[in-house]
Amino acid sequence: MRNFILFIRRFFNLILFLLLEVVCIVLIARTNTLQGNNIMSSANLLLGTMYQQRNDVAYYFALKRMNDSLVSENEKLRFELSKHDGVEVLQDSSATYAIPNPDSTAKVKYADYHYRYAKVINNTVGSVNNFITLNRGEDDGIKKDMAVISANGVVGRVINTSAHFATAISVLSKKQQVSARLKDGTVSYVSWDGQSPDKLLMKDVPNQIKVHKGDTVFTTEYSFFPGGVSIGIVYKTALIKSKNLQILYLKPTTNFRRLQYVYVVENKLSAERLKLEQAATGN
To answer: 86 in a domain, yes or no?
Structure first.
């Protein structure tokens, strides 16, 4: 206490001066004079900058929670969209005789997709056959041969599962070909040549098919992927004169170097479809 009193006595004049300055500034700021407006403007700018910095710091530390929330919301939206995709309404008709009370609302389903999001905890891009590891497994409903996609396009196919993890072979693999189509309906397949992770190839495209730079290549319903998922964008074409075919060079729409979250897609009707197709081929 004694030291405090000594401090006040020593710096009394300075403390009094600072207090009077503060009182003057407050009195001027409360008036509508030019000086008062300048003081209020400067104070607002300072406080605004401080609040912005505080908000930026809070936003940075909340990014993970926000990202997880967005991924979860996307999973729900994809599930809702899948209820409307893959359903065709057919019109019953006859060319020879009229059908009494024709049923015109018959629905034919060829797919029933369910999306589960997962986080990528390991990812390779420099091998001949690249793979990713996911933080969800059998306990989460992940099964072998399910498709894996990102928010931007195809990723790969699940090949192994455990209770809590799963590995998927990437599209960047010589073992993995993807059934693909152009915007005009031309169907072929997309593969990787084992070189750059920024390049895919669509082979055996007839030369008479007009393809332009910037065209997008999508998946078909023929493979394990849902139809209409983007695979890549054409940036170059090459002609094979001996076969009258062309090769399309694609830039993948998925950035495999920055994979963080993916969706594992389950087609609940795939087992039924596969059973019939195997019976048709005698396998």
So the answer is: no
